[in-house]
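re: ur question from yesterday

yeah so i grabbed the chain u mentioned. its 432 aa long if i counted rite. heres the sequnce exactly as i have it in my notes:
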Amino acid sequence: MHTVSSVTRTGTLVASLLLVVGCAGPKGADTAGPSGSFAGRWYKGNTHMHSWWSDGSHPPEMVIQWYKEGGYDFLAMSDHATLQDSDKWLVPTGGKVPAAEQYEKAFGPQWVEKRTENGQTAYRLKRFDELQRRFAEPDRFLMVPGVELNTSVSRRSVHLNCMNVRELIAPPSGTTMQEVMQGYADAVEAQQARFGAPMMVCFNHPNFGWALTAEELTPIRGTLFFEVFNGHPGVRNYGDSLHPSVERMWDIALTKRLAEFNLPMTYGLASDDAHGFGSIQVGKSTPGRGWIMVRARRLAWPDLHEAISRGDFYSSTGVVLKDIRFAQDRLAIEIEPRPGVSYRTQFIGTLAGFDAASKAPATQAAVTRIYSEDIGKVLSEQTGPRAEYQMTGREIYVRAKVISSAAHPNPFAAGDVEVAWIQPVRPAGSLK
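ran it thru and got these structure tokens back, copy pasting raw so excuse formatting
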């Protein structure tokens, strides 16, 4: 059993869970971006996690320290319904009790603030600005403020992460999931314009509670970000006999957005959505299961935001890439190989002239429709540390998935192997 209780020096937490975190990827020489003209380096980040500020098992300091010492370069805070900017005291209960003892040992009385409330020990939760002063370091570790918001529409709940926002957003009015989702996206855009700061919204775990359909993701205006992989055991990444996998939903939404709605790309993020920083096992919500690798000029949110917005990143559960290049309609991928591990790269896309017909599943519930296998088909499959795909001009989009033979050391589901998802690209001359 691995825990987060190992302390090697005063005020510093070294989690045994770090053993299962993949490295952050090559950071040496600058490399060209997908367009073949951008220089930058890879930065590893997580955009979804939870602490004592909401329903996480450990105080924010221990959560942040886990990522910082685990080779992550940036972390977006995402506790439920809070920007961590208020005065809050917490009395640990249940699974939070053991973490309180670890917290005191790791950070000491000069940092930890506590008081007695009705005979119980309460701890003051440090605000984001205090946490940022303690943990953020230029060119080494960046903290991004954020929040996970949610509301319900017809008993279905939509969850979204808002990154770098400055104010909480009230649930938008609307009677359909599409109206509410668009309302959230518009509110973040309006706040971005008002504060003059780059912000981002990502729709989380679409299959959690079978909340969203591909058709509801499709018409959202602007570039759409959603989680193609979420490490929480309850989010149903792989769907079931009635519901498609989240990855299948990505292909449906991409095809319809680009071919029918003339809307921008849909980009897929991976996150761990960690709530528990205790033992590692299938069925527990532990950290390190998924992350994004962003190629940017420097470790600063405006640069990361710019890179993510143009799709210059990949999502991973363990596979590390050396390079991704897209130039002259050729998508080329180079993998950082590990000894004894084999790699299989699938180039996935939809071609012009695809069968657009669909039918409703045999249910009255809100479920994604059933589409032709023309949508999101494997256009090419290659093995080895390098793979490339030359566009023919018929592609509506092409994305790639690298599948390794390495078993995931901290799997979302039993039998999972480490993979990486490369963001979609389009042939030259396509409508943007």
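noticed a couple things. The chain has a mean pLDDT of 91. also Residues 172 and 184 are 6 Å apart (CA to CA).
anyway ttyl
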